[in-house]
Amino acid sequence: MSTEDRELLQRFLDSLFRDRKTVKRLDVVLFAQTYDLPEILLGIVNNLPPVSYTRQRLADQLNSAIIGHGLSRRFGTVD
Asked: Which of 39, 47, 55, 63 could form an SS bridge with 77, CB 3.0 to 4.6 Å?
C-alpha cells in the first residue's frame, strides 16, 4: 500500500474541483494527463463515461473502477 499513491489521487480530485462544481469527462481526461497520474489510473480515467461530473459523482465512479480493478489496496478510495 502506497501512501503517496493514495494522496496523489486525492490531490488530483482536490485540484480538479478547486474552482468548479462540475466537470466534463474531457476535462477530467486532459487534467489527468497533465497531472502525471500513474498509467493504470489514466486507463481508468480514459474509460469514464462521457457525462458531466460533480465531485461526488466522479469520486463514486473512480472508487467503483478502482475497487473493480482490485486496486483499492494501492490507491484506496477518494471523496
From this structure: 63
